Amino acid sequence: MAQKTKILLLIKSLGLGGAERLLVDSIPYWDRDRYDYAVAYLVPWKSTLAPAILAAGVPLYCLAPGRPAIAPASPMGMTPARSGPAAALLPLAAARLARLQRRERFALIHADLPVAGVVARSVGRAQAMPVAYTEHNVQERYHPITRALNRATLPWTDQVWAVSAEVAASLRRACGTRTPCLDVLPNGIPVEQLAAEAAVASGLRAELAIDPSHAVVGTLAVFRPQKRLLDWVEVAARVAARRQDVTFVLVGDGPEMPAIQARVAARGLQDRVRLPGFRADGRRYLAVMDLFLMTSEFEGMPVALLEAMGLGKAVVASAVGGVGEVVHDGVNGRLTRSGACEQSAAILCDLLAQPAERRRLGEAAAATIAAGYHIRRRVAAIEAGYARLTAGRSA
Hints:
The chain is an alpha/beta fold and 395 residues long. The chain is 41% helix and 16% strand. The protein has helices at 18-26, 50-55, 90-104, 114-126, 144-153, 165-175, 191-198, 204-207, 229-242, 257-266, 282-286, 303-310, 323-326, 341-352, 355-372, 375-390; strands spanning 5-11, 35-41, 60-62, 108-112, 131-135, 159-162, 182-184, 215-220, 246-251, 273-277, 291-294, 314-318, 334-336. A 7-stranded parallel sheet has the order 3-2-1-4-5-6-7, with helices on both faces. Helix 9 packs parallel to helix 10 and helix 9 (229-242) crosses helix 14 (341-352). The chain starts with a strand and ends in a 5-residue tail after the last helix. Mean pLDDT is 91; it is low at 75-85.
């Protein structure tokens, strides 16, 4: 039997962000007869998805300060106390990764997001090993220090995948002639698994106290400023003023939660807006939505949007980042300008009044995802890249 090629996947954290979700969703589609995968992460206080990785039999390492050794994580103690800003993890994380690499002899490191990318490139360059990288956002949206470190070290990467054409363009703007091998590889979702999870959503409407006669407008997001969720609440307020038969569901948590709660109260929407908070089973909540509303200021290729479309939901989304590469206005969804609350509210009211049009858009959205955004296609493309980058190299 041929020796398997050892691959290390490095990511900043294992919270419920899009990049982290993609990693876990990819596991069933890996070619584990050919590749021997392991995962490492840097931020120990964000580890929601760690048990899923361990349950799949994938070795998991935490490279953060305060961990006793470079050893596979255990299911116990997966949520240690916060130990400081993520930037402070870089030097020690790089040293720990170098030590792990000397011991395990991975043939390639594949990093997601800039902090993990900087660590991976530093070790890859020092130990003369190939590094692949996935970029999920436009460079202009990162903190200036993060952006500078990413730009300075990106040329040390052997293969870069950008999740949208807009993200790829931002990398070329940042690096110019120093841009490494760069391809656009959109995010994907596990269509069948998503449908299976959504199928067990019975009881959620009752749990959320949603009137059986109401339509549901919702979203699933990390509550960060980029999502412009205060705009989302404003759109909900405008729709609620015109229609009494709509309930709004905003699933997630994050630093914007207090501001969102205050805005809901200020607009008198306590009886119309549901804020169930963080839910590890957030995909089930997509199942109760009739319309998916996304008001982001910027995005790469949002996984929650792909999930809603995959479930056949009609989507109304701001045309930012890679959103317009998957949503075509009037064909498989509706697009608005970021910050255009009245435009979004008017489109929602039109769709709420036209169930047949909602259904048509949802069916077209599901067909789009099934044809071009199944995660199986993404994994196959990545593993083809691994084969090219590790050809002739022993693990």
